[in-house]
Amino acid sequence: MAVGITFTNHSIQPKAINPARGRQAINQSVSQPNISLIMTTNKRGFASDNNSGVHPNILNAMASVNGGHTIAYGDDPYTEEAIKLFRKEFGEHVEVFFVFIGSAANVLGIKAATQPYNAVICAETAHINVDECGAPERFSGCKLLTVPTPDGKLTVDLVKKHMHGFGFQHHSQPKIISISQPTELGTLYTPDEVKTLADYAHEHNMYLHMDGARIANAAVALGMSFRQFTTDAGVDILSFGGTKNGMMYGEAVVFFRPELAEGFMYTRKQGLQLASKMRYISAQFSAYIQYNQWRQTAEHANKMAKLLASELKSVPQVTITQSVDVNGVFAIIPKEIIEKLQQEYFFYVWDEERSEVRWMTSWDTTEDDIKGFVSTLKSLL
Ligand SMILES: Cc1ncc(COP(=O)(O)O)c(C=O)c1O
Question: Is 132 in the pocket of ligand 1 (CB under 6 A)?
Fold first, then answer.
């Protein structure tokens, strides 16, 4: 059943909010927000693409499905429509399940393809290893076998050290190689590199999992469709992210082998990720995919990272440490300026010992943000 999600096409720059009008609208039903707090917390920085708001087109898409009643838990025409759009991108054979957050997409996707006696090989820097509070181990029961890498990327040579003990009852049995595209260090796999890892995994009766929390940034940087470096490169399970690129919430688990999706609806429910009002996730994804919203926002974020890197080239005290392929810039900067700079534009220290920081750009980063940031940084040197 075809459903219409309508929205106006906003330009990338969000309109400044008129606090007075906002207050009037809110006054009708709830108590007044503390506007000065809102103004303070709305200050843009470079901490994370999660810190930015929601693109107006996505908000409009959510509003456009807000009328009337529809069946809950995903049995609604909006969800059907969104899944169709995923199938258009990735292939008719894929199975798609929406969840709330990216960690859940990773954890539940991994759980679907493993037994608790299995192991998952990943980079030491992988989100599943560093930033999911042990949830992959807790929910799947699997052991994570990590690999140090110079740039966040796995290779067959790097993975090999964990590829042993198959059939030996005393060892965890490797079942998944998990990569992030782009990586947590803002680097990218080419489709050939993905395929080499997928082929290697398949030769060993294993699966390739891809954490695509920022998959849109990868696609625009590679100048490719999603399909070219996932379906066509042999990926088996994908976490498809939307939140970091202008959505409010909502990620998808995409299975490229339908047998892996068997029973996944129960796994998702047990994993507490079955949204009752699913239509609001689905409407976001429909707008995001159908109108190429993902491309517009990711292109902009990537462009802003490139601009930041190029503006910093002329600053000898700043050393960029990773290739700037998507929307992150990693750099070593003098320790003594970090705190003062953070007060003006918040960001995270990536590696305290090396004085390495991470600056993330977002769909709403402006050229003025970059110029202001670089000039503040220079003034502190
Ligand atoms: C590489 C990567 N994967 C997954 C996630 C998902 O995180 P969350 O569970 O916060 O949505 C993130 C968020 O920072 C990430 O950077």
Answer: no
